[in-house]
Amino acid sequence: MTVDDGNAAGGSAGREPDTDGSQESDRRSVGNLELFFDLTFVYAMSQVTHLMLSDISWQGFGRGVLALLALWWAWVCYAWLTNTFETARVTHKTLIIVAMAAMLIAAIALPTAFTTGALVFGLALLAVRLINVGIFLAASSRDEDGLASAIRRLAPGLLVGPAVIVAAAFVASPYRELLWVAAAAVDFGSPLIAGISGLRVVPSYFIERHGSVIIIALGETIIALGAGATENLRRPAVLGAVVLGVLISATLWWTYFGLTAGAEERMRRTPSVDRVRLARDAYSYLHLPLVAGIVFFALGARVSVEHIDEPLAPLAALALTGGVALFYAAEVAYRWRDHHQLTVDRLLTAVAALLVFPVAISVPAVLTLTVLTAIGVLRLAWELWRRPQIGTGIAGAVR
């Protein structure tokens, strides 16, 4: 069920792939180095959940969001780096591994990033960004002028954000959190202010890399379900709740990856100038709420499994139902930006998930998981039955 504004599949009917020679035509895949680097983000995602679990309050949720913003932009910077330059040089590989070590230190410090570990987290994050900018500048110096100019424009903004987080370690709350907000504004605003013209995107690589971060986030739901069930494995209701949690995660996975081929074709057909903006908006920006929705669902799922026979507390219920709703709402926004189509079924699913909130605070958590599973399965079944075309892809066709 979609609404098309007439610009699907690249913005005009029958548009052929751009052949001006300026866009990448290869189908480069994500390499083992990037997968190795992303292992630190598997741990970092679990640390975000741990940060919020230790303080299930509006303050705890706010800090979790700020931590996720900082981690996300660090990952985005490296996704653009490895998309733009192949890291064939031994020096570049070594520096990325050093950045991986710094990112691991930041992840270890993350649960205390707003208290005793603030300085360690800030300095580790700054090191991650310094390495990123250094590789960018060194690699672009041997490349075309347009790309080198774009990177020089963007470099200051890449360093200001983590520098502000370091400064935040020296002030007390709430000023510390306000500086984190300022750092996020710099991170996300600098590409809009400095401009991204001159950058380049390899469609196959860029989309595969962002698919990997969705897998990382979904992996956190599996970790959360396992951690929540560890103490009560002899209870059939707990085991049933784990199965329900996996089914919900699977519907999220199928919803996203069922359109990957169409998204890649859409980007390949986009002219090189527009392609960079599409990559920034649909992936660097709009994939963040997708990941955030999964992380909040993971938090709510863990609490649900731990308290399977009880109604959820309001904030835990909001994390569970709101996380699923945020994922589907972000899917709608992402597909609109990517394909210029409104996916009504996903929008209705977001609304339905949010409407489960009053149920979640009134009935045992296992029933809430059952209702959310039914909503996700019914939407997916409809999609697999109808097979709607969204952009250049057929929904539900997971590769």
Write the layout of secondary structure elements.
Layout: E1 2-4, H1 32-53, H2 58-84, H3 90-109, H4 118-140, H5 145-168, H6 175-194, H7 203-229, H8 236-257, H9 260-269, H10 272-285, H11 287-306, H12 314-339, E2 341-343, H13 344-355, H14 357-360, H15 365-386, E3 389-390, E4 393-394
Antiparallel strand pairs: 1-2, 3-4
Task: Walk me through the structure.
The longest helix is centred in the first third of the chain and has 27 residues, at 58-84. Strand 3 (389-390) and strand 4 (393-394) form a beta hairpin. This protein folds into two domains: 1-9 and 202-399, no CATH class; 55-200. The radius of gyration is 21 Å and the shape is globular. The protein has helices at 32-53, 58-84, 90-109, 118-140, 145-168, 175-194, 203-229, 236-257, 260-269, 272-285, 287-306, 314-339, 344-355, 357-360, 365-386, and strands spanning 2-4, 341-343, 389-390, 393-394. The strands form two sheets. The protein has a two-stranded antiparallel sheet with strand order 1-2. A two-stranded antiparallel ribbon has the order 3-4. With 399 residues, the chain is mainly alpha-helical. Helix 1 crosses helix 7 (203-229) and helix 2 (58-84) packs parallel to helix 6.
Widest β-sheet, arrangement of strands: 1-2
Order of helices and strands: EHHHHHHHHHHHHEHHHEE
Q: Biggest sheet, in brief?
A: 2 strands, antiparallel
Helix proportion of residues, in percent?
Answer: over 70%
Distance between the termini: 22 Å
Structural Rg: 21 Å
Annotation, overall tally of beta strands = 4
